[in-house]
Amino acid sequence: MSRWGVAERRTDALSKERIVEAAIEILDTDGEGALTFRALAARLATGSGAIYHHVPDKNTLLAAATDSIVTRAMAGVAGDLAPADAIRAIAVGLFDTIDEHPWVGAQLHRHPRSALLRIFEGIGGRIRALGVPEAAQFNSASALTNYILGVAAQNAENARSQGAGADRTAFLADVVRQWTRNDPARYPFVHSVAAQLRDHDDREQFLAGIDLILAGMDTLS
Amino acid sequence: MSRWGVAERRTDALSKERIVEAAIEILDTDGEGALTFRALAARLATGSGAIYHHVPDKNTLLAAATDSIVTRAMAGVAGDLAPADAIRAIAVGLFDTIDEHPWVGAQLHRHPRSALLRIFEGIGGRIRALGVPEAAQFNSASALTNYILGVAAQNAENARSQGAGADRTAFLADVVRQWTRNDPARYPFVHSVAAQLRDHDDREQFLAGIDLILAGMDTLS
DNA sequence: ACCTGAACACCGTTCAAGT
DNA sequence: ACCTGAACACCGTTCAAGT
Question: Which keywords accompany this UniProt record (chains A, B) (predicted)?
């Protein structure tokens, strides 16, 4: 409080919001390994101890960053879609978000109960609107959420092992090489789909899985 | 090589197998956070640097430990089951294994391509036997694998946040409390299933998800 | 009240020195 | 060849000292 009233405040003062924002920038540009309290302090032009006045520890910071990104992704889903399309929109929205921020995928199965709950609620509401029997709603929402989580983790790992500006074609060719290196007698299925792997689209495959679960839910009513 | 021939060797000599075995013991009894090269060296009665003669780094060690557990789990699936039952057996086998070794769930989406590939092959083979159209086999195997992965991660996190000898009823009551603490107007679905959460069974819910995906696959042929 | 930055108690990993 | 264990370059977190 100054003689100018409530408004005046250093616009660059430290706050939880600014810290989370800076953390997201570091995570996006340099990856999970680059987020240290020292790097964060340097970017915010402060001491590393100062951060602890606004954030209790690193896990909480990562949860807050994840929550911020997931909230933004869920908010982008149009409200007037048919239930099944809304589920697809939520799923694809999360897929694209994790594609953009791979660290979110890795983070999503740790502490951030709140981010997960937001996803679960968004999907559950549409499942009810879809007319899935009451007794199957919980299991159905759980199945979809877990599937999305599994893909998220997988994608995060792919992005991590690929590095930032990697050539996707070269990457896939390398995975195909790894797959076909295994004994064909012990891995017949892997060999038979290795060719499809080369020119499949992750996003399409993800959506095919969503549709598979939606089709399964459809058989319940 | 001694004058006794090839056979003689100290049975307690360090080896990759003994290191992986000791790592699994530490992970099982004291959790992921307890696995350090210093703790491992102490348990093996050696110096921390000695481990690097048999294992290149910690990530490789964790991948080898995960691979060892997953291989054991997949080997336990009976060979004479009908395809759909075999898929259920693989899935439940992995579920129970991760229940017993929660760190495997957390580890499964990182490096161990080989563990993942083993699961993918096991499931893919049965999908083909199931008569799923050729064009849908890759996506179906991918969906099931990703779903299993998602549940694995979720379960690992639950086990971690529960601690070892925790009371499950008390834990669930606490989750219900967290769920219902949110605004009912913003989280109607979460509130409506909170009661079911209290006495649901994780294993049954997991299997219900598998059956949902199997039912979806059934609509394709 | 908020910030500073040295200090503490750890890590994974390396490497000269031993056997 | 294999092992030892001190040393190095980091971490997250704490805390006396400043403003």
Answer: DNA-binding, Transcription, Transcription regulation
